[in-house]
Amino acid sequence: MVLTTSIALPVSSAESDERSTATAAPSLLSRGIYSLYVQYHPRGSMTCDNVPRACRASGSPGPDCCRKQCVNMMTDNQNCGQCGKKCQFGQACCGGSCVDVMYDPKNCGGCNKRCKKGSFCQYGMCSYA
């Protein structure tokens, strides 16, 4: 058995105005919360596939657009040189190419870290022995 009670409290004129405007616009509220998102966040739907210039703005992760995200295809291991090209384990994206930074004397331990002439790259270090 459930017992419910209700209490009637006096309502001020400001509260009654708020209630009357909320009931006066049921069409706006009946569309759901997602209809309000575009109204309050006009840039929420702006992605780089719609506006490619967005990736060139200051603070952007990179100048290229891949799958609606701004990336730098010269350094991104998930999009190296082209969208979706992933570098394997132990490789890094250097200048848009996947290179083995553990054994490449031109990129030993990282991009553009050259070993001295005559030395070799092993385990990401020049002339490791």
Automatic annotation (TrEMBL):
It comes from the Eukaryota. Keywords: Signal. This is Stigma-specific protein, Stig1. InterPro entries: Stig-like (IPR006969). Belongs to the STIG1 family.
